[in-house]
Amino acid sequence: DIQMTQSPSSLSASVGDRVTITCRASQSISSYLSWYQQKPGKAPKLLIYAASSLQSGVPSRFSGSESGTDFTLTISSLQPEDFATYYCQQSYSTPGTFGQGTKLEIK
Amino acid sequence: QLQLQESGSGLVKPSQTLSLTCAVSGGSISSGGYSWSWIRQPPGKGLEWIGNIYHSGSAYYNPSLQSRVTISVDRSKNQFSLKLSSVTAADTAVYYCARTVVSYYYAMDVWGQGTTVTVSS
């Protein structure tokens, strides 16, 4: 299985901050990387697909990038509704493994 | 607007078979360019991909579950199903169904609300 190492596991930030979450794949996954946001008691929501494509309806403050096997989710200016847990997932090969998650909390 | 809704047994005894169905509304499960997936999340933990199926019936499974899992599709009812046999307490989780979009590099763009399955005697 491809391992996805996500960091940090938790993060405290303030409204208006710029935040970066990283996922590193254990091998090349091309651009087969998605980012999801999950709020307590809710299903995950797709934010970014193909490493850097913004899902329809998702605010432009969310962006994704890649460099080799390193992938980054950036929130340019945190809003109150962005406090949630974020997961990356590779879909290059079966099984489609997820990162461990990053819990973004209010400072 | 596509919607997915999970249903099935919420309480399953150890060693028995977990059965869930995902009803698809607002679109056809037979549409090309998609597959239909199951994902689970144990209490307080992260997400685990279980498997997916195409409308043709071709299914792919997580090797860690492959010996116990079957995903099937019923095009006449516009739904797909999950069966997980020989369950243990470790299979207790919220189970989600989702649509996977091939052109989105297999990202999952529409999710059901999830259903809680508890394995207990």
Summarize this entry quickly.
The complex is a heterodimer of chains A (107) and B (121). Chain A has strands spanning 4-7, 10-13, 19-25, 33-38, 45-49, 53-54, 62-67, 70-75, 85-90, 102-106.
Helix segment count of chain A?
0
Radius of gyration of chain A, Cα only, in angstroms?
13 Å
- Report strand order across the widest sheet of chain A: 2-10-9-4-5-6
Give a short account of the largest sheet of chain B: 7 strands, mixed
Residues in helix, % of chain A: under 10%
Helical stretch tally of chain B: 0
Q: Most extensive chain contact?
A: A-B, 27 and 25 residues
The percent of residues in helical segments of chain B reads under 10%
Shape of chain B: globular
Biggest sheet of chain A: strands, sense, closure? 6 strands, mixed
Strand content of chain B: over 45%
SSE string of chain A, helices as H and strands as E: EEEEEEEEEE
Query: What is the strand tally of chain A?
Result: 10
Derived from helix and strand composition plus strand pairing, the structural class of chain B reads mainly beta
* Global geometry of chain A: globular
Indicate the mean pLDDT of chain B. 97
Extract low-pLDDT stretches of chain A. Answer: none
Detailed description of the structure:
The complex is a heterodimer of chains A (107) and B (121). Chain A is globular and about 35 Å long. Chain A is built from no helices and ten strands. The mean pLDDT of chain A is 97. Chain A is mainly β. Chain A has a six-stranded mixed sheet, with no helix packed on it. A four-stranded antiparallel sheet of chain A has the order 1-3-8-7, with no helix packed on it. Chain B has 121 residues and is an all-beta fold. Chain B has no helices and eleven strands. In chain B, strands 2, 4, 5, 6, 9, 10 and 11 form a seven-stranded mixed sheet that branches. Chain B has a four-stranded antiparallel sheet with strand order 1-3-8-7, with no helix packed on it. In chain B, β7 and β8 (79-84) form a beta hairpin. Chain B is globular and about 40 Å long. The mean pLDDT of chain B is 97. The chains are: A mainly beta (107), B mainly beta (121). The A-B interface holds A 1, 31-34, 36, 42-46, 49-51, 53, 55, 87, 89, 91, 94-101 and B 39, 46-49, 51, 60-64, 96, 98, 100-101, 104-109, 111-114.
